[in-house]
Amino acid sequence: MHGHGYAPPPPKRPPTGLLVVLRVIFGALPLLSIGFLAWGSTLRVALVTRRAVDWWIFLGSLLAMGISFAYLSTDHTDDFSSPNGNVGMIILLLNAAACTGYFLFADIRHYNRLTPAGYPVPLHQAPHPGPHYGYPQTAGTASPYGTPVPHQQAPVAQPPVVPPPPQRPAPVRIDQVRAELDELSDYLRKRDGRTDGGDGR
What we know:
Elements: H1 16-32, H2 38-49, H3 52-73, H4 83-112, E1 141-142, E2 148-149, H5 172-200
Antiparallel strand pairs: 1-2
Helix pairs in contact: 1-2, 1-4, 2-3, 2-4, 3-4
């Protein structure tokens, strides 16, 4: 039996310092070369992302540079001051600005989609805010392989059971004071009776 073989290793995300240096170099290349090397930035994007759109943009930047050179070649002044020279320089500078902007946009977007391991973050696993606004999720979401993946309900945390406060016993202190007052009054009555009886004797 023959399988598909081993999958190619995923592209690894370069260190952040190296990415910053490359972005500075390829971002400044079109502007410092006055547009003559603008194609280098789009070529870098096309080689990194390997998308057809980026290859078309690279070819478009080459085409814009060719049109600019065609206009500049018909200018026979020393400082490109004729109308053809002005049009050629405008196309060249606009191409440089567009290539710089697109390079930064595409490069940052490409590397932000990669995890540290190099794999792009799947859309169905991207973090989302909150539990879908309180609606229960009963249906499954579609996985990238076409089979629905049922949602697993997260266990609902029950509030902790707080025991009721203990019943306060009857006011023992008041009963004790009453008992002591009753004893005291009995004692005083007995004492007053003795005193009266002693005076009578």
